[in-house]
Structures are given as structure tokens and as C-alpha cells.
Amino acid sequence: MTTSLAALTAALADRYCPERQLGQGGMATVYPAEDLKHHRKLAVKVLRPEPAATLRPERFLGEHPHVLGVFDSGEADGFLSMARRPETASSEAASS
Predict the structure, then answer these.
(1) Which residues have a Cβ under 8 Å from the Cβ of 81 and sit 6 or more positions away?
(2) Which sign does the torsion angle of CA 21, 5, 66, 62 carry?
(3) pLDDT per residue over 4-60, tens digit each?
(4) In degrees rounded to 5, what are phi and psi of residue 3?
(5) Largest distance between two CA atoms of the chain
(6) Which three-class secondary structure state does DSSP give residue 87?
(7) How far apart are CA 36 and CA 93, in angstroms?
(8) Where are the alpha helices (DSSP H) in 5-64?
(9) What's the pTM?
């Protein structure tokens, strides 16, 4: 199962505007996005539905915020996501 960009955009509409899929790894998909509150570009990493069904949300949402430049994380309409500096998220997409 893949994440629908339209469904993700609707779920994050109050905070972020994802543009397109940038990369996908085994557990997550990364989207470049606009932070609507702070008017900056960032990357939103979204846990894919398959691992989300078996992974504790705390593990994903608590993933190394001090190392990877996480601005925000949370759950919206069933999507577990974190907003990060674009350079850290896009380079990690290949290794997720």
C-alpha cells in the first residue's frame, strides 16, 4: 500500500503543504514541503502504512531529534510524520 499525496496533504493541511514524493525507504517516505506557519521549506518524513501497523508510534516520533534536526513530529489522520531540515531528510531517504 502506498500513501496518497492527496490524503497526506489533507491530513497536514493546517501545518504543511507537501509537494511531491522525494524518496522512499523501507519504513518511510519523504516529501519536500512548505511549513505554513514559519514559511520555510522542509522535508516531511511519513511512516509508511505497513510498518506503522506494527511499530510503536513513540519509536518513530522519538527518532533522534537532537541529531537529525527535527522541527516537529506527530500524528494526523493516521499518518505518523516528522518535519525536518530538507538536507537531513533527503539524504536519509535512501537509507530508510
Answers:
(1) 12, 44, 45, 46, 47, 73, 74, 75
(2) negative
(3) 899 999 999 999 999 999 999 888 899 999 999 999 999 998 888 887 778 777 777
(4) -85, 130
(5) 34
(6) helix
(7) 23
(8) 5-11, 49-52, 57-61
(9) 0.71
